[in-house]
Amino acid sequence: MSIVTYRQTLAAPVVCAGVGLHSGERVRLVLQPAPAGHGIVFKRSDLTDRDPIVEAKAHHVTGVRLGTTISNSDGASVATVEHLLAALAGLGVDDVLIDIDGPEVPVMDGSSAVFVELIRHVGLTSHGIARRAIQVLKPIVVGTEGRQARFMPSLSSVIEVDIDFEHQAVGRQSYAFEVTDRIFSEQIAAARTFGFKKDFDALLAAGLARGGSMDNAIVLDETGVANPDGLRFDDEFVRHKALDALGDIYLAGAPILGRYIASRPGHAINNEAVRALLDDPTAWTMISLGEMEAEARLQVSR
């Protein structure tokens, strides 16, 4: 079985700092090892007037415009969590305390690559406890014909995305991948977020993209890709949408054993799909990945 089957956390703390893509604020972030069952939890270390703990859960999503924001009942929030969550999902990290001293996860280079590199630098350690996963039992479909997302039963975790932008550098693209450490690290993690130069002034006026630059995003102008170094992948745009989708659906609180298929996805429909799945108790069940792996090995040995 290619998916991680035992709960993992970081072997040691890891620190990074950078600016928020939308807030433009300088932020320091520390990933701390956590005990089994802790889950993925953010702690706003800069807040003293309210509860600083924000759990990374789909029903805690309070914003989906150009990024995913999660909040607690006291109004503490953390924005643009999807790139970090994608790194944790891709590497199979279940338990981590994320200390952050500002309102938004630093964008770094606009992808998950820096987070992956930092986590690999300190390494992961197993709790020796089998991971539990959400196994999709029946199709769940949300959205409309033009923008749709669905979960389908599958024996593995798969993300399948297609996009269609009226820009010569993008156009129609599709990408599918199985969620494993190696595939995510090699094919998805380095894909950067992107935006259109023509929209920049409007985003600034709306209080967004204040930290955006060619250092942390692909910028598209009227003629093509404006970044001097070009693209990391020919289809980097759709790979990044797949990265976003992985981060957003990891807010389910556990890996999802199923196929997530999204047409022209965004953070809103990703979250809508996860909530729809979780809110239908007949659509899923919790399984032990450790037991599933043992059964698969037994079948091979027979």
Would you mind describing this structure in some detail?
- The chain has 302 residues and is α+β, with helices and mostly antiparallel strands.
- The protein has helices at 82-91, 113-122, 181-188, 200-205, 236-249, 267-278, 289-301; strands spanning 6-10, 14-19, 26-33, 40-44, 53-55, 61-63, 69-71, 77-78, 96-100, 124-130, 132-136, 140-143, 148-152, 158-165, 171-178, 194-196, 218-220, 256-257, 259-263, 284-288.
- The strands form six sheets. The chain has a five-stranded mixed β-sheet. A five-stranded mixed β-sheet has the order 12-13-19-14-15, with helices on one face.
- Strand 16 (194-196), helix 4 (200-205) and strand 17 (218-220) form a beta-alpha-beta unit.
- The mean pLDDT is 93.
Alpha carbon gyration radius? 19 Å
> What is the top-level CATH class?
Alpha Beta
Strand content: 25-35%
Discrete helix count: 7
CATH H-tier superfamily: lpxc deacetylase, domain 2
Main sheet overview: 5 strands, mixed
Q: Would you identify the CATH architecture?
A: 2-Layer Sandwich
Write the layout of secondary structure elements.
Blueprint: E1 6-10, E2 14-19, E3 26-33, E4 40-44, E5 53-55, E6 61-63, E7 69-71, E8 77-78, H1 82-91, E9 96-100, H2 113-122, E10 124-130, E11 132-136, E12 140-143, E13 148-152, E14 158-165, E15 171-178, H3 181-188, E16 194-196, H4 200-205, E17 218-220, H5 236-249, E18 256-257, E19 259-263, H6 267-278, E20 284-288, H7 289-301
Parallel strand pairs: 4-9, 11-18, 14-19, 16-17
Antiparallel strand pairs: 1-10, 2-3, 3-9, 4-5, 6-7, 7-8, 11-20, 12-13, 13-19, 14-15
